[in-house]
Amino acid sequence: MLQRAASLANESSVTVLGAGLAGTEAAWQVARAGIPVSLVEMRPVRRSPAHHSSDFAELVCSNSFGALSSDRAAGLLQEEMRRLGSLVIGTADHHAVPAGGALAVDRGRYSAALTETLDQHPLVTIERKEQQSLPSAEDITVLATGPLTSEPLAEDLRSFTGLSDCHFFDAASPIVHGDSIDLNIAFRASRYDKGDADYINCPMDKEQYLAFREALLAAEQAELKDFDKEDATFFEGCLPIEELARRGEDTMRYGPLKPIGLWDPRWGDVNDRDVRRAKRAYAVVQLRQEDKDGRLWNLVGFQTNLKWGEQKRVLQMIPGLSAAEFVRFGVMHRNTFLESPQLLQPTLQFRSRATLLAAGQITGTEGYAAAVAGGWLAGTNAARLVRGLEPLDLPATTMAGALTHFVSEAPTAKFQPMPPNFGLLPDLPERIRDKRARYGAYRDRALADLESIRSLLVQPVVA
Predict the structure, then answer these.
(1) What domains does the chain contain, in order, with CATH numbers?
(2) How much is the pLDDT for 295?
(3) 3-class secondary-structure state, position 129
(4) Which of 25, 196, 316, 428 is a plausible cystine mate for 375, CB 3.0–4.6 Å?
């Protein structure tokens, strides 16, 4: 298959469709290998229902890549990408904002920086147009158009694969001005005082919580856009806040409104059991810093499809947000992904066309770091195809490899998007009961096995 791919391929360049996280990373890895790349992005020629700018790698749902620590699944994936020379994760580190134990970024500066980096690279040609069909089989192409692939291209993709796409509905959280948050009520803290006090916390008593839940349940939903008029299937890892409210009185309190580990010193001594029992919050809404200057804050876990007027009315019921000024309201959109187990190899090449690779959320991975990992592998393998080298298959013991093996090998009956998690990794040789120690062992094995891949990589070309 490799010989056939090499003989058919345009030996001088690669085309990357889509400049989201996966496409940006893929284009960089191709150019980094010294190979010209055409990066095709439809914005601003055609807007998507969820994006707000035309910059590359725009973060739609939140500004967080997840836990930073490498003994957490998302953190391990980030560390793997750092060691493999990821542009997207390296830029995230540079534009990080305080977020407790998570890697969160200033969205605007982050996307602008990535756009400028690729725009200035001499081997990258940026084409702003809507791609309406797949390139020919002679062209090495990375499909990274994401879950918001335009309909003409999606229709051509369905024709090429002979399969209908899968879908679910995703949503983004609202963002408010920091100076409109009442810090006489809200307080700064990180859960269990881990790290700096990087979150703003809005505490609720039981009466306030129950009234807020009732308001969510009664609030009017926004009508889904024309292309979204199907039965709504939600991604379980990113449910709208009103859907959580519908699932039970305490569901939000065990999810994004969990009060455990959060304490306002103004309530008294947290070590005094009587004080703690009398003063602790029934529920807590958290806000995470959105920009480097701390002017903007997003409501953590508050993805929503409420009408904008309803969002303002209901969310201002949260203590500390009664005068909140909204920079952006939450929106819902349809996410499309491939039936990847029937279509892709672990190298992210299509089984039926070795010169076509896929990366990012369209493959059925979930989360920003997972999209970056897919972009890294697809871009690296596209460059290797141009050079006549065997594509890489990442070890399944790494988090990146576990994800690519999952999307290519998972049972096909009810294939659904998968975020990074330790449950994807092969068992350790010995059973470790302590969870933290077990995750640390997974990490150590993953990073050791990653070295076998690093030794195979083509040395980057200095532009």
Answers:
(1) 2-171+335-454 (3.50.50.60), 175-330 (2.40.30)
(2) 83
(3) coil
(4) 25
